[in-house]
Amino acid sequence: MQKQQLTELLWNSQTVASLPTFLLGLGLAAVLGLVLGQVYIRFGHSLSNRRLFARNFLLLTVTTTLIIAIVKSSLALSLGLVGALSIIRFRAAIKEPEELAFLFLAISIGLGLGAGQVALTVVALAVIFALIALRSLLNRTPDQPNLFLTVASAAPEKVSAGRILELLTATGAAASLKRFDETPDQIEASFLVDFKNVGALEQFTQQLRALNRDVKVSCLDDRGLIS
To answer: How many structural domains compose the chain?
Structure first.
């Protein structure tokens, strides 16, 4: 008797009937999560590592689809989900609005597919991707930056944001300040920079270290540098 009850609990007729649709939705969520990641890498402007951040979209879309598929037919499960999520605290800081927007988009994909709104989700996502591509095309300029440059120094009096911009200009690089953080003991500045070649980058680094040997320079490639 107990074995029969256990079998019905784990593998009842309703579960068998809904399983193909659920697996199809889960597979589509994975595909759309990967596509969203590629769109973010190609058209995003975040200063963080976009390839690394985009890896989260696959897991986020699939997980959201699973959660919604489980709770959509049960009010009790929905209330339990609210209680469970209320104890979760995310400590990772989202530094740029663009990252948050793409996270919401990944969650929206999971919500739509988990609720069974496949056609609506796919069509809406296609329109959103088209708008992102169109925005990137309209905002394109001939002198787009090819590096995301971050400079951190423990001596703010020696290495200031203005001084860094002067050195970049002296090497022939076009630059714009994107983020600036300063404490009494440290400065950190992030720039969008267009270096002409690797030699210009090396020249800038040498001049910067002449001001402070302990300065930290980080470069994140966007379009690449010529030798």
So the answer is: 2
